[in-house]
Amino acid sequence: MARKLAFGLLAWGANADWVVKERDVPAYNAETSMWVKQESPSADHMVTLTVGLRLDSERRNELERIFWEVSDPEHVNYGKYRSGAEITEVLAVPQNQVDIVTSYFVQAGATSAVVAATRDTIKLTIPAAALEAALNTKLHHFTHAEHTQARIVRASQQYALPEHVAEHVSLVGELLQFPRLPLKSLRNLSASASSWSNGCDSASCANFVTPAVLAQRYKIPNSTSQNGAANSMAVAEFQGQYYKDTDLAMFKESCHRDVTVATNVGKNEDSAGVESELDVEYIKSVAPEVPLTVVYDAQYSLIGWVNQITALENSPLVHSVSYGNDEVQQASTQYMYTCNTAFMKAGVKGLSILFASGDQGVCGRSGCGMFSHSRFHPDFPAASPYITAVGGTDFAVAGTIGDETAWKSGGGGFSDTFAQPDYQKAAVAAYLANSAANFPPQNLWNNTGRGYPDLAALGGQKNSYCVATGGRFAGVAGTSASCPVAAGIFAKVNGVRLAAGKPSMGFLNPFIYKNPSAFNDVTSGTNSATKVYGFTAVKGWDAATGFGTPNYEALAKAAMAAVEKTIVV
After folding, report:
1. pLDDT attached to residue 8
2. Rounded Cα–Cα distance for residues 548 and 520 (Å)
3. Peptide linkage before 327 cis (omega within 30 of 0)
4. Low-confidence ranges of the chain (pLDDT < 70)
5. Segments of 445-557 assigned E as strands
6. What is the pLDDT of residues 445-460, one digit of tens each?
7. Is residue 7 within 8 Å of 20, Cβ to Cβ?
8. How large is the C-alpha radius of gyration of the chain?
9. Active-site residue flag, 403
10. In whole angstroms, what is the distance from residue 497 CA to residue 450 CA?
11. Residue 179: per-residue pLDDT
């Protein structure tokens, strides 16, 4: 069941009512977020955040109507994307609304207030003390239990706005969201014996997944001839996840793939970050001919990031993101709703966004209890109906390139917040009717929610990826590997379309669900992680691996068939 956003009035002062924002879930949960509250920031510590403006429901519905039309391969408007100016016109946010909110924060002490081109968000930079007063809240530094160098500022309690401002604001983010950082247990893994030859020159990569293994399993050709001149792709990095040029050069020399970064949006420091280097090395291993952009932000702001890429003049066409968290760890349903609107804006512009489904099975970062088995915790944004979620697999026989099985810790399941979108209703219904699925007890999950992932790729620990990081090669696993691989394959498919003079694929899910035969079906394994219950992979779509893993040859053929269908219409 979807949770309703709860608003309430908080008496504040003699003559003013303040409206409490984002009350429907806890603001802070150290046990499940792994972030630990520290001291308060200094009064002049500068904080950057995004204010989402309230949208007229009819205007948002119109954006969504366009989103579905341009994303549906069987619709006459498939691929007829809109410009930023046209999206601004669709949303039609009144200038008076923008002025009221902007003026409030500027008068409160904001040193910068940048209104998005679409006029639905405002990016603020403001001293901590001024922000606390403006939002009637309390800020603290937080450090991460595993990644001790990571440090963020968040509110440790709910926040509020004066009523005359609150009526124009949907939320202020990222005040209450705690980013999920990669688990250290998925790094520096040892290798199991394999039947394949080492695809890289370094002996350290023996028995690990290399570009050559992916090329064989997913039928990825070495040819780069079919790539439209405008093709592009990107990975998103946050919280100090940089890459070293020397690590990329080492990977290129040993594994025979050009993994050069073409463009940086945001500053990259010459520092080894295994998450960033995994993303760069393997999205480029799959699609070396496609120019790669690294979009880096020191602060993890989901809304800020998606608005940033949508506003870029020539935004990369495919975006891979290996960050997220559980639905219950979001500040509110309204926060997720606002993110979904931002995802729609990206799709209407023709961008494809892929998110990793998570690395802790059905229980997510929040867990399902130490002793008794409590309710599953679906991931966000992976469970959003407006993005493509990528789960994880292992080879069914460790060290043998062939059939795959669901990785036991791959994220997957059903949203507790969002209903099943039309594009997946038939596939999910078939799964729910499959007696071989051996479903968990119904009280643990929502069988009417959006099912995810949509597809999967190798990510498990039987044969992890060989990654050049910190001057050496190391074994790394997780859906943080699966996602850039899948994104690279779709960037390569985009190249086929663009070379034919056709538009990019945009939001991928309607295409994916109309072409299940373009994937290697995964029919074994359960994503229960360390718990008793999980979802079992079966024939067809399932909530552990989606439709399975990509077959590039079949996907490229299906993409051209979609082109031909739109020509006929």
Report:
1. 29
2. 5
3. no
4. 1-16, 20-33, 182, 224-226, 326, 328-331, 370-372, 563-569
5. 449-452, 455-458, 465-469, 472-476, 519-520, 549-550
6. 999 999 999 999 999 8
7. yes
8. 23
9. no
10. 29
11. 75
* Cα angle, residue 381 at apex, residues 277 and 428 outer, rounded to 5°: 115
pTM for this one?
A: 0.92
Nearest C-alpha neighbor of 79 from the set 67, 92, 70: 70
Query: How high is the pLDDT of residue 6?
Result: 27
Q: How far apart are CA 558 and CA 562, in angstroms?
A: 6
Beta bridge partners of 153: 141
Give CA–CA dist 127/379, Å, rounded.
Answer: 32
pLDDT at residue 103 in the model:
97
E strand or H helix at 414 = strand 413-419
Active site residue 112: no
Answer yes or no: are the C-beta atoms of 142 and 35 closer than 8 Å. yes
- The angle that helices 302-311 and 333-348 make with each other, rounded to 10 degrees, is 20
- Active-site entry in 72, 247, 277, 279: 279
Q: Which of 352, 415, 480, 504 is catalytic?
A: 480
pLDDT in the model for residue 132: 96
Q: Does the annotation mark 275 as catalytic?
A: yes
The sign of the dihedral angle between the CA atoms of 145, 148, 150, 155 is positive
Q: What distance in Å separates the CA atoms of residue 428 and residue 550, rounded to the nearest whole number? A: 19
End-to-end CA distance of the chain: 39
User: 100 in helix, strand or coil?
Assistant: helix
d(CA 198, CA 204) in angstroms, rounded, equals: 9
Q: Residue 326 has what pLDDT?
A: 67
Segment 353-371, tens digit of pLDDT: 999 999 989 988 777 876 5
72, 174, 275, 416: the catalytic one is: 275
Helix (H) or strand (E) holding 293: strand 292-297
State the helix-helix crossing angle for 95-108 and 128-135, rounded to 10 degrees.
Answer: 120
152: Cα separation from own chain's centroid: 20
Q: Which distant-in-sequence residues (6+ apart) come within 8 Å of 294 by Cβ?
A: 234, 235, 237, 243, 261, 263, 264, 265, 266, 268, 276, 280
pLDDT in tens, 367-392: 787 656 788 989 999 999 999 999 99
The residue whose two tokens read 């696993």 is: 477
Beta 413-419 vs 449-452: how paired, if at all? antiparallel
Q: Can you name the CATH fold of 212-568? A: Rossmann fold (3.40.50)
Cα(114)–Cα(123) distance, rounded to whole angstroms?
5
Q: Yes or no: say if 332 and 428 are a contact pair by the CB < 8 Å rule.
A: no
Locate the domains of the chain by residue range: 8-55+93-173, 212-568
Q: What is the DSSP letter of 437?
A: G
